[in-house]
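Look over what follows to help learners.
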Amino acid sequence: MTDSQLTRQHRHYLAVRERLVRSAGNSGRWPAIAELEAQLAELATENAARARRIATLEEDLADAQARLLAQAQMLLSGRRADDDDDAEGDKSSIEEIVAAVLADFPGVTWADIVSVRRDRRLVKPRHACMRAVYEKRRDLSLPRIGRIFHRDHTTVLAVVNRPVP
């Protein structure tokens, strides 16, 4: 390439650059980019809402599957749901069950039980509460008990499968 061609090409690039900068306006941004960013923010918000809804539906599905599995196991073992309810008598509320367990652990409150803290002094009462709710309220699935205690259902499963100390 010759010098004149390079100079002409350089002037052309400068002219194109000037047109692009002028079309961006005072904001320094192209209107199309601003519009796309607004659409992106809206889509991100919708996506987050859908993700929360999906998580809720997955929890409900896990709860329903656990209930179905428990009912199927009762049917296979020859027991009916009505027989199980009669054997349990009246169903205590979760608050009553937890209050009865926490009576053995002075200084520990419901807020401590559902907190994220993992202090040694809270582990035994938390596990005792989970086990008591599991044993006295057979109508509740593991995922449901987990949600009550702000834990995963696998944590509840590990607690109830662990031998009583």
In short: The domain at 90-165 is CATH 1.10.1750.10 (Chromosomal Replication Initiator Protein Dnaa; Chain: A;).
